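It is worth pausing here to work through a concrete case rather than discussing structure prediction in the abstract. The textbook approach is simple: state the sequence, then state the predicted structure, then interpret. We follow exactly that order.
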Amino acid sequence: MSNQKKTALYCRLSQDDGLDGDSNSIQNQKSILQRFAEDHHFPTPCFYVDDGFSGGNFQRPAFQQMIADMENGEVGIIVTKDLSRLGRNQLHTGLYIEERFPMFGVRYIAINDNVDTENAESNDLMPFKNLFNEWFIRDTSRKIRAVQKAKAERGERLGTRAPYGYVKDLETKKLVIDEEAAAVVKRIFALCAAGNGPSRIATILTKEKVFCPSYYAYQKYGLTHSALDITKPYHWSDSAVANLLENEIYLGNTVNYRFSTRSYKDKRKIEHPREECLVFENTHPAIISKEVWDIVQQVRKNKRRRTKMDEQNKYSGLVICADCGKTMVLHRAHTMSADYNHFTCRTYKKDGEACTAHYIRECILDEIVLEDLRRVTAEAREHPQKFAEYLNSKQSAELQKDIRRLGKEKAAMQKRKAELDAIFKKLYEDSVLGRITAEQFQLLSASYTNEQAKLIESLPQRESEIHRLKETVSNTAAFLDKAKRYTDITELTPELLRLFIEKIVVHEKEVKWSKHAPQTVEIYYNGIGYVGSGQQDVEEALEAPQTQDTAEPRQAS
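Step two, the predicted structure:
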């Protein structure tokens, strides 16, 4: 049998084996296995090599190929340097040696452990050796996790590879900008800020024949990656673009513990919420500014889709119906002039009786928003002190209003909780005294229990909201800084809209479907909210703070 089939010489090395020095190197394993096969005159020796794969993982490419060849009847003998090279999971290793290999008539030999499945006596200690091998990988995994935890808590980046757009400094091992790749990263963020989604961006980069990250690393630095396909150097996937757009590494931040695994046996990644991660800011040079990052995240949040006319709605997600609170839909058609592109309420479109149209033409909205944006930024530049005073006083009033509302909700919840406690006490007494049966007690208490559980869950949330509002600081300084940098706004772009505007609230016309009836439009700015409707609003509000929230919003006709 052996004379007709090949001898599989299997080698494996992983980072877990680094403590063993050169003794487990691939070259050393090959030398030992080759010499052993020659000394014993084994037929047709053939190497299967997995370099960089853990012994706890049996989904190794060379190992799986060897098993496939075995199942096809091509392998008669399998030889490893020792049992740990085959694997360090005692259950899986034992399953292969004691069941799978014999099933296909394959002889297995572990040279250094003196294991030979043709010699029954040599196999007596094999289960114990497999157990010790698993203990080794468990202990090694524990040590590696401890080292990684210490590095993570110090703010050191845990990844071994530099992300696209960066390269590791050979001396300091810190990230430095790769200008060529960084230019592509900046372009990707700019395309997204302009309203293009990951799929569209991927298509653009592919058409322009921009090297994808895996091929770029291979072409410039000779690095290989599991995702590398040298036959597709320009293949950008939408997932690769999306991951890039969501990676804070480009802000200059290091985010540790974003992913983890359940154990050394289960390598599936678990993503953690940001609040559970360790975030260290300004650990390396940033490629993307915070301003651009915020715009892109807002765009990604709304996930704007291109229309059937292959045009972007620059207002997507920003225009809100004042009555139902839903986003409004932009209508375009090849059969009508761009002047007649218009927004209508999403709810009205689905159910004409649930809301009204709130019809407003896009060109009219452009005029209103552009004029208001120029006005507000001019006020901020020309009268920064008065502008800041106005916003701070307005913000303070709005915060106090929200705090009072949440305080009332909290008080009502606490009162109801006390009432439920009294009801439970009375029900329990009635049950003990036999006034009601056990079944009646369970039936009556069930609904009260659910209500109480919801209250117990909601109360801390209300307290957290109140605490957050009390700690809210003014965003005036950031807005003033933006206003100073944008002194000549001539047209509305998606970037400008996301940079300055939080939402645009459109009210129904005073006379529905009238071409000339007034229509209220409220423009809310990022971080500072609604800023009046005219040039005198700031001065008037400061002179009469008691009426600061009564300024009339913009009107369209």
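Step three, interpretation. The radius of gyration is 34 Å. Residues 544-551 have pLDDT under 50 and may be disordered.
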